[in-house]
């Protein structure tokens, strides 16, 4: 009011009735404001109470629990371990080696644990020194062209970016690689070098296993020198305990709900009956085979083209990706193992880890039957490794046979030679060993514990998703050969796929599969020329590449030169996709089709001979056209010969020395212009 009075001193004074109206208006606003404030305060008060209640439920925040679980340090402290063996594994071998090393530890008064780097926070390596006599071992496989395995990708990324001080860490590395590949043991070498750069102390030299030679022997040789180095470093001695230690205990289920029993699923129970995306290694999609035809017109081999229906799966793929399929073992082999061991294969059982703290509760999905385990989960066709022979030896009742098994499992030169000739070179699988050592009759549950897991098989996809969005095509050759013992060994996956026929009832036409992404990619610009070299089934990804280039052309895109170098034995025997390639060539999509028939003349002709014949054109495409080169197929001979041919072409037409030419080709690889999709 005083203010109003002050205002009323101004010349234009409002009439008295106006002032009374304002007073009335103000009192109404006051009521409105007070009501609004009261309402907001009440709302805030109750809302605030609800928020305050959250801290009263701290135990509900169990989200924090996995963070603690992800600390391998806490786990080691809790369980009294001092050695952790991490594995980067694509096919299970590195994991198997890691398990063997962790089991070895007890012989030296130490305790070990095998660990998947994907499940833990590896930045905790800096804290390992908190544990007395601690050591980190890394069994690292190299996948593809020098890449980390899927489960070691995060660890690799962390190593590249880490600036952590690892000066308290003691470590050793064993790498698993294959000398036929360009980047032999790249991952093992990188981990070894990088850990040292970060200040860690190497207590034993890097081991380099070569799967093209004898990986098992390489591992044993490294291992027998590794443990004495550990003993010397920590001042411990071997306890002399060489006894077999079971990792799992058998539980036989006599009264079990069959809906709770695994029947071949890789992860979730009943996942094959109730399919849910996304589909991956632990949750494969059951694709129906819609086509399975023989590609070759003659010869002893069986080359086939299969088409898998991926409709409604939400699976996406690119040309050059790989399809992984989970095969099943031959039922006759499974039955013979059951008969020789006198076992009811339909017994429902579980193998439970005796180490309750282990993340791996079972060696394979349990509960299940022995039949299911031997059919879908265990590798019964590859020669068993020495640790399996060592563990099984105790069950041989004949002293001579027991000694023979122990000798093959030993690190003595004579034992290694015997293992190499009698097991590896003779390609004796577990059934053949049981047949040839009559007194060896182990309990089937211990055998199931020891056998490695049956792995998925990878195939280069032979189709383009632009043309076949709902199908994945496979091109494969069935593997079948006679061993030195006169037995006929068959490839697990290819013979299983051979028998997958289109079936309206779907019963015999389903293939568990998923897609693995690859770096084998067409150039970003369709106008970039491509040179594709793929003899035999190495043509698979190029069928997809050519389909895609044809599709791009149909879309009105400018497509560069598309050149194919293909090879087979005989023109009228195993010329794969002959009609399709001829059509693409006729339509101008395939600008050059060069085919080498190795056995149609006295002198063998291979793809590298045709490359030399067209060397001037090749150099022009690479040097002037910035062409991308792709090689698919056999790593041991073909890929190496092709690469040497490119060295020669570059040296000749680029006026370079041999070392300069090699460097030029390596730079093409680094830039992604020389890509390999090879196998040995």
UniProtKB/TrEMBL annotation:
Domain of life where this protein originates: Eukaryota
PROSITE patterns in alphabetical order: FAD_FR, FLAVODOXIN_LIKE
Signal peptide annotation: none
SUPFAM superfamilies: Ferredoxin reductase-like, C-terminal NADP-linked domain, Flavoproteins, Riboflavin synthase domain-like
Enzyme class per UniProt: oxidoreductase
Alphabetical UniProt keywords: Endoplasmic reticulum, FAD, Flavoprotein, FMN, Membrane, NADP, Oxidoreductase, Transmembrane, Transmembrane helix
GO molecular function, one term: FMN binding
EC number: 1.6.2.4
Any one GO BP annotation for this protein: response to hormone
Pfam families per record: FAD_binding_1, Flavodoxin_1, NAD_binding_1
Region entry Disordered, spans: 1-20
Domain FAD-binding FR-type: 282-523
Name the UniProt record assigns to this protein: NADPH--hemoprotein reductase
Gene name for this UniProt entry: Por
């Amino acid at each position: 009011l005083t203010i109003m009075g002050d205002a009323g001193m101004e010349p234009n004074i409002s009439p008295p009735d106006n002032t009374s109206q304002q007073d009335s208006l103000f009192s109404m606003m006051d009521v409105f404001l007070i009501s609004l404030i009261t309402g907001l305060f009440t709302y805030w008060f109750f809302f605030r109470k609800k928020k305050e209640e959250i801290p009263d439920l701290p135990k509900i925040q169990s989200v924090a629990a996995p963070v603690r679980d992800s600390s391998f340090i806490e786990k080691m402290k809790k369980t009294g371990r001092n050695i952790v063996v991490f594995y980067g594994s694509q096919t299970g071998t590195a994991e198997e080696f890691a398990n063997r090393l962790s089991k070895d530890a007890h012989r030296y008064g130490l305790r070990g644990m095998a660990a998947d780097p994907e499940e833990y926070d590896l930045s905790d390596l800096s804290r390992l020194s908190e544990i007395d006599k601690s050591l980190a071992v890394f069994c690292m496989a190299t996948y593809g062209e020098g890449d980390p395995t899927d489960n070691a990708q995060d660890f690799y990324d962390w190593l590249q970016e880490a600036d952590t001080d690892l000066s308290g860490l003691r470590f050793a590395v064993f790498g698993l690689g294959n000398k036929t590949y360009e980047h032999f043991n790249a991952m093992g070498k990188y981990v070894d070098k990088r850990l040292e750069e970060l200040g860690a102390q190497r207590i034993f030299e890097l081991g380099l296993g070569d799967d093209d030679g004898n990986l098992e022997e390489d591992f044993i040789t490294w291992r027998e020198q590794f443990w004495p180095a550990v003993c010397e470093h920590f001042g411990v001695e071997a306890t002399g305990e060489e006894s077999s230690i079971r990792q799992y205990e058998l539980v036989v289920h006599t009264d079990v709900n069959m809906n709770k029993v695994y029947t071949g699923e890789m992860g979730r129970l009943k996942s094959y009956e109730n399919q849910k995306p996304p589909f991956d290694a632990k949750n494969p999609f059951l694709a129906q085979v819609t086509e399975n035809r023989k590609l070759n017109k003659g010869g002893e081999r069986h080359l086939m083209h299969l088409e898998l229906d991926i409709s409604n799966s939400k699976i996406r793929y690119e040309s050059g990706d790989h399809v992984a399929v989970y095969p099943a073992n031959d039922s006759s082999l499974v039955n013979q193992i059951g008969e020789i061991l006198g076992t009811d294969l339909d017994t429902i059982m579980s193998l439970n880890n005796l180490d309750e703290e282990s993340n791996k509760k079972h060696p394979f999905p349990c509960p299940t039957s022995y039949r299911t385990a031997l059919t879908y989960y265990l590798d019964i066709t590859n020669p068993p490794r020495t640790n399996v022979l060592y563990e099984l030896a105790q069950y041989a009742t004949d002293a001579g046979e027991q000694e023979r098994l122990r000798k093959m499992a030993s690190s003595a030169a004579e034992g290694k030679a015997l293992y190499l000739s009698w097991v590896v070179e003779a390609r004796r699988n577990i059934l053949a060993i049981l047949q040839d050592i009559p007194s060896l009759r182990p309990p089937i549950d211990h055998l199931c514990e020891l056998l490695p897991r049956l792995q998925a098989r990878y195939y280069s996809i032979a189709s383009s998703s632009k043309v076949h969005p709902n199908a994945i095509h496979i091109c494969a050759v069935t593997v079948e050969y006679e061993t030195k013992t006169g037995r006929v060994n068959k490839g697990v996956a290819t013979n299983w796929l051979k028998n997958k026929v289109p079936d309206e009832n779907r019963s015999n036409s389903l293939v568990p599969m998923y897609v693995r992404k690859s770096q084998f990619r067409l150039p970003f610009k369709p106008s970039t020329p491509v040179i594709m070299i793929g003899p035999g089934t190495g043509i698979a990804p190029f069928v997809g590449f050519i389909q895609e280039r044809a599709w791009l052309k149909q879309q009105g895109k400018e497509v560069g030169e598309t050149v194919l170098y293909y090879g087979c034995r005989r023109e009228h025997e195993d010329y794969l996709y002959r009609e399709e390639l001829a059509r693409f060539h006729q339509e101008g999509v395939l600008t050059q089709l060069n085919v080498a028939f190795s056995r149609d003349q006295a002198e063998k002709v291979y793809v590298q001979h045709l490359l030399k014949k067209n060397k001037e054109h090749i150099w022009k495409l690479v040097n002037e056209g910035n062409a991308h080169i792709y090689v698919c197929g056999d790593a041991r001979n073909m890929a190496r010969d092709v690469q040497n041919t490119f060295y020669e072409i570059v040296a000749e037409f680029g006026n370079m020395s041999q070392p300069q030419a090699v460097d030029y080709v390596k730079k093409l690889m680094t830039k992604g212009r020389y890509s390999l999709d090879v196998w040995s």
